[in-house]
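Troubleshooting log. The previous structure file for this entry was overwritten by mistake, so regenerating from the original sequence record. Sequence copied from the archived sheet and checked twice against the printout by T.R.
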Amino acid sequence: MAALKVGPGDEVLVPANTFVATAEAVVSVGATPVFIDVDPETLLITAQGMAANITPKTKAVMVVHLYGQIPDMDGIMAVANAAGLHVIEDAAQAHGATFNGRRAGSFGVAASFSFYPGKNLGALGDGGAVVTNDE
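Regenerated output below.
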């Protein structure tokens, strides 16, 4: 968030169904998390939910991939690109998951992975990674 200059006065869309750390990342830079409803079948964020919650203060969206599932990233990226929003992926529970042939963590400007022991790809203690292809 800090590298993208998200901060006080900015809003970041986050799914209502997520771990508290998703909102904490937003709050840690002084921005405001805006919780949006998720699809009742997949429990993931949707492009329609995003579009309905974008305001002039919205600067980014944190897409959370859960249970090894990735939401409709084509729709999400289309909405985000049209609105000029940064897309950040929380891929902590989607190591190796794919959507239309692309892996979790390869859609947005950056993505985070967790290696906490209870995750899909656990380590011997806390750990994680942030990935990006943006200089």
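The mean pLDDT is 89. Archived copy saved in two places this time.
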